[in-house]
Amino acid sequence: MRGAGGSLLFLSQADVVRLLDIDKLLEALAGAFVELSAGRTSVPPRIAARTASGGLLGAMPGYIAGVLEAKVVSVFPQNHARGLPSHQGLIALFDEDTGAPLAVMDGVAITGIRTGASAAIAARWLARPDATILAILGAGVQGRSHLAAFPRTRDFKEIRIASRNVATAEALAAENPRAKPVATFKEAVQGADVVCCCTDAREPVLKYEWLVSGAHVSS
Fold first, then answer.
1. Is the pTM of this model over 0.90?
2. Hey, which CATH number is domain 117-218, 3.90.1150.10, 3.30.2350.10, 3.40.50.300, 3.40.50.720?
């Protein structure tokens, strides 16, 4: 994992996007969840320092056989108004035997797709076997992440996308031939077998009475 001559490997966001294989990520996450449930990992609670402006810087170390890492991520919700990602960060990898640093990579793309992929793994095992309609509520970073991951774990015949911003729902739906934008969250949810809440809205976007019996909800 080191560069030429044993130097530290650096991967930019563009490098990560180019190299990341979502199908391999899904399988790696599935295996990691098994190890976590079996108590064979070391994943302490995250810690965070908060700023006067309302942002935070969190640290998340973790170990699973073969991987020793730490993610440092900043969360600044006000960045949306600045045209910047609300979540930014770095991931560092270390040698599990010596602790020597091996690589540092941009964490934005990995954080985005990892969240959607984790939810997709859960839906693979927890949603009804006959689930065919997917609703995605929100069309930002997480909406895109869920759209990229969920169809890889289930054969959804219909994918509905709703957003507070109709234009973003239309743009995201254009990325998958089975996806279509719908006008309201209610329209997306009613009759859906799997519902993904991917919005940072401060008001409720989902009501219990909209859900069909046995629906799987991811949030």
1. no
2. 3.40.50.720
